[in-house]
Amino acid sequence: MHTVERVWMTPQTRESLERELAELLAVPNEGGTDEVVDAWLARKERIREIHELLSRADHAVAPADDGVAEPGMVLTVRFDDSGDTETFLLGTRGTTEAELEVYTVNSPLGGALLGATPGQQRSYQLPNGATQTVTLLSAKPFGADSIPA
Prior knowledge:
Strand content: 15-25%
GO biological process, one term: regulation of DNA-templated transcription elongation
Domain Transcription elongation factor GreA/GreB C-terminal: 66-139
Distance between the termini: 44 Å
Number of domains: 2
Keywords: Elongation factor, Protein biosynthesis
CATH superfamily of the largest domain: Transcription elongation factor, GreA/GreB, C-terminal domain
Protein name: GreA/GreB family elongation factor [Actinosynnema mirum DSM]
InterPro entries: GreA/GreB_C_sf, Tscrpt_elong_fac_GreA/B_C
Strand order of the largest sheet: 3-2-1-5-4
């Protein structure tokens, strides 16, 4: 049995995608020049993308504030080799308008952190073959109080 990967998105993003979809569907199809056909094909592809995102979207507003790294959580990590920190949303690209980097659970970093709790170290492989170790410092549900200034 094939399971569909669920997508977390903010309620605002869901509303924005639904508005965009309505606008795209309201534009009449017009035949004609190659330019018009290309625009129609691009619009058709965007409609498909939005349908896909909305059909896979979780309907929960936010994950539980339990400190577990999961989609919809804003994670702060420390790169153990340098001591540098980074804060990002674990989610799906295009599902929030926040001024925040998004890593998916399919990315090396996001996949390594999935299920981690603050204080846990996780390692993942870099594209050059080296191993990177990070420590999860915090995991908070996405929201105004979880985005760094």
